[in-house]
Design goal:
By secondary structure, the chain is α/β, with parallel strands linked by helices. It has helices spanning about 15-25, 35-45, 65-70, 85-95, 110-125, 160-175, 180-190, 195-210, and strands spanning about 5-10, 30-35, 50-55, 55-60, 60, 80, 100-105, 135-140, 140-145, 150-155, 155-160, 180, 220-225, 230. The strands form four sheets. It has a five-stranded parallel β-sheet, with helices on both faces. It has a four-stranded antiparallel β-sheet with strand order 8-9-10-11, with helices on one face. Helix 1 (about 15-25) packs across helix 5 (about 110-125), helix 2 runs parallel beside helix 3 (about 65-70) and helix 6 (about 160-175) packs across helix 8.
């Protein structure tokens, strides 16, 4: 961890000093601080940190907007730290690209643990294995070509958004198998499931609206109560 670089963007000087002290005690030598969104973005460009700790309420804007701008050109871990404890605030934080959400007041040791965990995870993701091109998935009336980002049903194209395509890829690769919400979230969103059922449920509903003749009475994509979802394909 000694070579890692962390940027903290928060307008509370006491918080900045506390986090900076804790992280340095945990072996993270390079810890920079900023109290505004504008300066935080400038320091990000200059310092190129490996991780950002980001408050939501800043004197010149919201951390959400800072996160969006960083996500426009970087995938470094972003951990929100905020006094906002409502579920909707956390959902929004994850939806715009945050990797973790820590509420104030927080345990300094827990925060340090989460920072180190995200840094380790980022290291694992640096080197991606070379894989063969994705195969075309076929099951029942469906055919999905990941390379073309195209789904066909009985030969007719269905317009799907990226996450919907990701879900269909998982379902077609595991036809007639029950897949949990946790597995879907981990596979399609590439993040640990944190109990946010709505994210998966909303995308499943939208997917049904596109692939089912009667979305309210699905024939293919069914819910298995208490377990998850299953793409039902009649075996020929």
């Amino acid at each position: 961890m000694s070579g890692k670089k962390v940027l903290i963007i928060d307008d509370e000087e006491d918080i900045l000093k506390l986090i900076q002290t804790v992280l340095k005690k945990e072996g993270i030598e390079h810890v920079w601080t900023s109290t505004t969104a504008k300066d935080g973005l400038a320091q990000f460009q200059e310092k190129k940190p490996d991780l950002v700790l980001l408050d939501i309420m800043l004197p010149d804007g919201e951390g959400y907007e800072v996160c969006k701008q960083i996500r426009g050109f970087s995938k470094v871990p972003i951990l929100f730290i905020s006094a906002k404890t409502e579920e909707i605030d956390k959902i929004l934080g994850f939806a715009i690209g945050g990797d973790d959400y820590i509420t104030k007041p927080f345990s300094p040791k827990e925060l340090a643990y989460r920072v180190k965990a995200q840094l380790r995870r980022a290291d694992y993701a640096v080197v991606e294995p070379v894989v063969e091109e994705d195969p075309v998935f076929k099951a029942g009336p469906f055919e999905l070509d990941p390379q073309k980002a195209e789904l066909l049903k009985n030969g007719s194209p269905i317009d799907l958004k990226p996450k919907e395509l990701g879900l269909m890829k998982v379902f077609l690769a595991n036809a007639n198998k029950v897949i949990s919400k946790e597995k879907l979230y981990d596979t399609v969103w590439g993040e640990d499931f944190i109990g946010i059922d709505n994210t998966v449920m909303v995308h499943i509903r939208r997917l049904r609206e596109k692939i089912e003749d009667q979305p309210s009475s699905p024939e293919y994509l069914i819910t298995v109560k208490g377990l998850g979802y299953k793409l039902v394909i009649e075996e020929q």
